Amino acid sequence: MTQISPTFSPLYRQIKGLILQALESGEWRPGQVIPSEQELAVRFNVSQGTVRKAIDEMAADNILVRRQGRGTYVASHTDPRQMFRFLRLVPEGGELLTHPKSIPVDCWRAKAGQEAARALAIEPGAQVIIVRRVLQYGRRPIVADEIYLPEELYQGLDMEMLQVWSSSLYSLFETRFGLRMIRAQERIRAVAADRAAAELLQVDENTPLLSVERVTYTYGDKPVEWRRGVYSTAEHCYLNDLT
């Protein structure tokens, strides 16, 4: 009979898990400072170096942010440096000089189909909120998104709320619904613009576009958003730094 040995987890990873549990429970909210490394070392009965290693990894994952002389903070999508960190579209030959403008097109409620239910880990037929929006750079529409959200997590979200919100959608989700997006998984392929995409992006039908399907996760690796977007890449490219 084959025996399965327990998986070894380094001590700093265990401390990282405990800090993540505290974040998930809401002990420290986005934008708030967390206790010092010394205080956390006492709390978890480990060395300060072990805590520092855990925090270093969480800072590399954009979960925490170190600020020189001020301490370590929970990362927030309201921070201009974090606001569009999942958006990889940049102009040819340079970085974005201004943030894109999110323009809501529609918002309605429906029952989740098989694909949405699988992506969001909910039951088929569960209520979802579907948002259609365009991202505009200057006066030019570049991205058209269709976003699926579990209604139980976004109760009260409607077109009026989307229209009056002036920052990123993720900052809205964090501020109004307490949902912090910490990682995303994307699938990318080339497509031709159908009539709906052509109208939203102001391009001809069959224009080559980039299709980006994304599932976004909060703490506990829980999926809280599924979106399907099409990107116009005539003057922009999808940039991803690989390390």
Protein traits:
alpha+beta; disordered N terminus; 6-stranded antiparallel beta sheet; single chain; 243 residues
Can you tell me about this structure?
The strands form 3 sheets. This protein has a 6-stranded antiparallel β-sheet. A two-stranded antiparallel ribbon has the order 1-2. A hairpin with a 3-residue loop joins strand 8 (208-218) and strand 9 (222-231). Helix 1 crosses helix 3 (48-60) and helix 2 (37-44) crosses helix 3 (48-60). The model is unreliable at 1-5 (pLDDT under 50). The protein has helices spanning 11-24, 37-44, 48-60, 114-120, 159-164, 169-177, 195-201, and strands at 64-67, 71-74, 89-91, 101-111, 127-137, 140-150, 183-192, 208-218, 222-231, 236-238. It has 243 residues and is an alpha+beta fold. The protein is built from 7 helices and 10 strands.
